[in-house]
Here is the input.
Amino acid sequence: MPDPDEAAAAARDEAEEASAFSHPAAPPDVTAAYGDHPDQIVDFYAPRDGSTAAPLVVALHGGAWRAPYDRVHLSPFCDFLARRGFAVANVEYRRGSSLPHQGADGPVAGRWPETFDDVAAAFDALPALVAEHVPTADARRTVLTGHSAGGQLALWLAARHVLPADASWRTPAPPALRGVVALAPIADLALAEELGVCGGASGQLLGGERELFDRRRPYADPAALLPTGIATTLVQGRADTTVPVAVAEAYADAAAKAGEVVGVTFLEEVGHFPLIDPAADACAVVAEEIAQLAW
Here is the structure.
């Protein structure tokens, strides 16, 4: 006999996802390239209130690092932030696989090293791009945010200065950030792989083989790149069945063991998608968390 609690959770998840994806795409004010590949672009949203020196939110979309999911589904969220006085950079990056095959659960997640090459290159290019295309933004007050797989990338960007010494993405100093607000992030790749999050996407991201996963994890897993010294908050729905609460808790525990305090805002009876759904109360909570770091 079907479990009524599981049926109710599945119905809630379906309704939340439908709501988040029901909004029409919000066109950006301008799109700029940070590289030659078609996916190496950033959509910019100027603050809708016309304010100057607006904080800059750099947003990284989720979708399990898989090609079918691009930045467009995050555009209503970016527009929502722009209407609250932020300038927003919605970053695209290479996803999926360069090979024409699919995994057991659909398109393969991520490319190594291109996914990481892209988000690093985009972030490094942003000061110049912002100055040219969004002069009302103040890049000195930058907050990184990302949802799900994008949350992993946001946490990773904030940790480039603690990457292994031989990492090509390593920076000599911490990034100039006010902080990171990671939304239901896949913040612990080892635990996510153990739990089968998003159909084994974490393993695919790092190459699909156990030997590659173990070798590459120190270069990619936010939970292994601590402490960062960057103010960090996770926002997590307690009812999230896509990226379970345990993943956020594991990251916060790893930070504590490294001597760093990471804020975690748990939202009761909230699943995975309301965090980026402008129609949901959870989205307003996210905006407030960003504001607390930006202003």
